[in-house]
Amino acid sequence: MSAGQDTRLGILLMIGTCVLFSLQDGISRHLAGEYNVFMVVMIRYWFFAAFVMTVTVRQAGSLRAAAATAQPHLQITRGVLLALEICVMVTAFVLLGLVESLAIFASYPLIVAALSGPILGERVGWQRWGAIGIGFVGILVILKPGVGVFSPYVLIALTAATLFAIYSLLTRRAARKDASATSFFWTGTVGAVVMTCIGLFHWQPMIPADWGWMALLCVTGASGHYLLIRCYEVAEASAVQPFTYLQLVFGAMIGVLIYGEVLQPNVLAGTAIVVSAGIFTLLRERRVR
Fold first, then answer.
1. Tens digits of residue pLDDT in 224-251
2. CA–CA separation, 68 and 66 (whole Å)
3. How many CB atoms lie within 10 A of CB 225?
4. Is residue 36 pLDDT above 90, yes or no?
């Protein structure tokens, strides 16, 4: 199989991943609107942790091998950050809606680029700084500060984007010493432990229909991660990374068609600026590497 065929397959797998993760976002919005966020994320993590342990045992040979790390504090910090980010983002879905939350969250690659210097010691050139600046102009277009009523809920989505950016950078740092299977293991298990310690105190009875939605939430999440793993096995991450923005498109479609959200012109224009700047940053990083 040629490299071109690998890349095409990787792109198809990434598109499938974005569809599944968008469905996960839509279901999360429904369930967190009916029940509390902590319980929903906790149950989601139980299934995710089981999936993670199954995958990493196959990759590393045993749970002990998968868990072996020289940097446990870094791995625990990553796991806690991701669990926190998911709680914050699902809260944004409920309070702000899918369209605006995902539009703001699309800025996370720009935050990654901006923080890669202080966290990873990477050099950020003027072209990437220019793209970062343009991207944040796009965020301002989405937020419309000084025009109409500013919703404080947008800060929740921006916090989620920042948390995920830091998590992504710490994942890169962890990769210097640990295998991807090890990082994946700590991501799932630490998150499950943290959310269980919090979520059990917020348990609410759930109607049978919503248990069906919860099961679908868990399946879409695990399936999305499986496709993502396969995607990175057959194609270079830098080649498929720009296609991750399709999650924004699919998520916005769910927001508009299912939840009756309105796609405002400023959100559309601002998102186009953010995505363009983000793709430029990704392509620039690929060229430098």
1. 888 888 887 787 766 777 788 888 889 9
2. 6
3. 21
4. yes
Residues of the chain with pLDDT > 90: what percent?
40
Residue 215: the pLDDT is 95
Answer for the pair 155, 43: CB distance below 8 angstroms, yes or no. Answer: no
Question: Of 197, 206, 182, whose CA–CA distance to 56 is shortest?
Answer: 182
* Helix axes 98-105 and 246-257, enclosed angle (nearest 10): 170
Distance CA 245, CA 280 (A): 13
Spatial separation of the C-alpha atoms in residues 2 and 138, rounded to whole Å: 38
d(CA 165, CA 92): 17
Query: What is the rounded radius of gyration, in angstroms, for the C-alpha atoms of the chain?
Result: 19
249, containing H or E segment? helix 246-257
Q: Which of 2, 78, 18, 5 is nearest to 241 (CA)?
A: 18
Q: How many helices (H) and strands (E) does the chain have?
A: 13, 0
Question: pLDDT tens digit string along 80-127?
Answer: 999 999 999 999 999 989 988 998 888 888 888 788 777 777 676 777
Q: Token digits for 1?
A: 């199989």
What is the per-residue burial (b if ≥16 Cβ within 10 Å, else e) of 133-157?
ebbbebbebbbbeeeeeeeebbebb
Q: Give this prediction's pTM.
A: 0.85
DSSP string, 24-55: HHHHHHHHHHHS-HHHHHHHHHHHHHHHHHHH
**Which of 172, 174, 188, 167 has its CA nearest to residue 71?**
174
Q: Are the CB atoms for 45 and 192 separated by under 8 Å?
A: yes
